Amino acid sequence: MEISQAQPEEENMAATQITTHKNYIGGQWVDSVTGRTYQVHNPARTHEVVGEFQTSGADDAMLAVAAAREGLAVWANTPAPARAGIIYKALEIMGRRADEMAQTVTIEEGKPIGDSSGEVKRAMNIMEYAAGEGRRMFGYTTPSELPNTVAYTVRRPLGVVGIITPWNFPLAIPAWKIAPALICGNALVFKPASATPLSAVKLIEIFEEAGLPAGVLNLVTGPGGQVGNALVESTDVKAISFTGSTEVGTELYAESAKRLKKVQAEMGGKNAVIVLADADMDKAMGGIVQGAFGSTGQRCTATSRVIVEDGVYDQFMAELINRTGKLTVGDGIDPSTDVSPLASQNQKDKVMEYIGIGAEEGANLVFGGRALAGGDYDQGYYVEPTIFTDVSPDMRIAKEEIFGPVLTVFKAKDLKEAIDISNSVEFGLSSSVYTKDITKAYEYINTVETGMVHVNASTLGGEVHLPFGGLNSSGVGQREQGTAMVDFFSEVITVYIDHAAEATERARFI
Ligand code: NDP
User: Fold this and answer.
1) Ligand 1 neighbourhood includes 248 CB (under 6 angstroms)
2) Does the beta carbon of 165 lie inside 6 Å of ligand 1?
3) SS3 329
4) Per-residue model confidence (pLDDT) at position 93
5) Residues known to be catalytic
6) Residue with CA at minimum distance from ligand 1 atom 40
7) Whose CA is nearest to atom 23 of ligand 1?
8) Cα–Cα dist 211/68, whole Å
9) Can you say how many angstroms the Cα of residue 387 is from the centroid of all Cα atoms in its chain?
10) What is the 3-state secondary structure (H, E, C) of 303-316?
11) 8 Å CB contact between 370 and 333
12) Model pTM score
């Protein structure tokens, strides 16, 4: 997903095969007002151009907001079960295009094709669940304290909502924001990560084919600092659903607060697994290797720290190194690949920088640590799965999100010390403990500071019908997915109806 400015046609040998993708505004595929485009390259084969996309600016974002206001008038008045009908239709189309969508995710983001297929499945699950909410858009009715009075609540759309997403899940994260926002009756302006716009374009095509009315879902590609920022600054945009870095999310939250905009921001992680001495070692090992190195460690829920109880530390490390050594590093499009390239040169540089920092800080590099070179590796952003031991909680590699295939290992004398290490970071997204002791498992569940807690399972993922999100620097605002999805994307309106035949004396305190 490396990005470059588009070259004039005569300078670009492959220009004739490159498709230029447009913005989608008011039901039309349109060029950006800026007239500029950029190219995205395959991270496994950087000479391959994935496509050319609009380098939009604030004016394009504002056109999309205006279109969304028109779309809102139609969509907000469409009954929720009828909105669901369109999402079900989109789900069916996505199912038909599932293989193509998975390949798209792999060629623009780089992740192994099996992970991309999982991502498509995940997007479909959320669409199915969100569509089901169309028949469950519940309010509640309660007795009034007054005679001849009915009191109840209804849900209403927020209005125009901005959707801003990262590159690491270019299909699933947009789907888990867009489908819930649509079922609640909102009209959207979607700004995908600049690095992965092709999955976004295809997602829009799917909703267009499903019959979504013009203006309800608009796509604007281009730099976050312009397009995303314009959405944050627009008073016509009532809410922002953001996933990305803590740095950008914090700024976006502050700017939105000045305009009293509703925000959900899902951000970084530094997820830890605790392995106690009584753990099923085979189970723990499977979860940790997959959690740390699957999707090249570029998941917000990736395992980046392991805290091992003293008594089993040596045995654990020997097996961890053994299993990590069996991973195959290669192009994600090859089904035998376990670890694919990083998503960009920036990502590769950042990961290599952290590997250098770890060594300087005195951590012990016990596996990997090199950028891979030679043969096909020269064409992509490949870094070996990497393991550091003798890590202490005050080191930068122990505290900061690396977002790559780098695992840091700590030793702890007991559960209490392990939880202290787990909780010693600013992030609080996901965590896990491996133990057969139910008492220890509950002690962990009750004290670990993360939004998602796993016992005897990896830090990865979650299910669409349960809330997803983190604490502290990992997340702010209402959770995504599960029943929480309608809470974020709707307003609750309270209604009182006096149906008495004649005027009655009523005490009012507020
Ligand atoms: P960024 O924060 O860099 O970007 C996220 C999105 O915000 C992109 O669309 C980006 O646009 C846009 N953006 C950038 N600057 C602004 C701005 N000033 N105003 C508005 N929007 C802006 O994150 P990454 O794309 O690098 O994603 C990786 C991060 O996402 C990691 O930290 C990861 O942990 C986190 N993440 C969190 C998840 C969670 O649920 N907690 C899930 C998945 C990822 P552009 O691409 O044009 O820069």
Assistant:
1) yes
2) yes
3) strand
4) 98
5) 266, 300
6) 266
7) 244
8) 16
9) 25
10) EEEEEEEHHHHHHH
11) no
12) 0.95
Site to substitute for ligand 1 among 253, 263, 267, most atoms within 8 A of C-beta: 267
Tokens of 57: 């600016």
Beta partners for residue 241, in sequence order: 163, 264
Q: How far is residue 4 CA from its own chain's centroid? A: 24
Sign of the C-alpha dihedral computed for residues 153, 155, 159 and 162 taken in this order: positive
pLDDT at 502: 86
**Backbone dihedral angles phi then psi of residue 491, each to the nearest 5 degrees:** -100, 145
Q: What is the pLDDT of residue 2?
A: 52
State the pLDDT at residue 4: 59
H helical segments located in 58-192: 58-75, 80-96, 98-109, 113-132, 172-183
How many Cβ atoms are within 10 Å of 211's Cβ, its own excluded? 10
What distance in Å separates the CA atoms of residue 180 and residue 131, rounded to the nearest whole number?
8
pLDDT attached to residue 11 = 44
Distance CA 18, CA 352 (A): 32
- Could you read off the pLDDT of 110-130 as tens digits, one per residue? 999 999 999 999 999 999 999
> Cα–Cα distance between 436 and 274 in angstroms, integer?
12
Count of positions (residues) in the chain: 510
pLDDT at 88: 98
Distance 265 CA to ligand 1 centre (A): 10
The neighbouring-strand residues paired with 427 are: 472
Main-chain dihedrals φ then ψ at residue 154, nearest 5 degrees = -130, 160
Q: Is the CB of 403 under 6 A from ligand 1?
A: yes
pLDDT at 474: 98
Q: Which residues are CB-contacts of 471 (< 8 A; sequence separation ≥ 6)?
A: 428, 429, 449, 450, 451
pLDDT-flagged residues of the chain (< 50)? 1, 7-15
Could you give the CA distance from residue 167 to residue 468 in angstroms, rounded to a whole number?
18
Q: Measured between alpha carbons, how far is 22 from 190 in angstroms, rounded to an integer?
A: 13
Residue 148 one-letter amino acid: N
The tens digit of pLDDT for each residue in 351-408 reads: 999 999 999 999 999 999 999 999 999 999 999 999 999 999 999 999 999 999 999 9
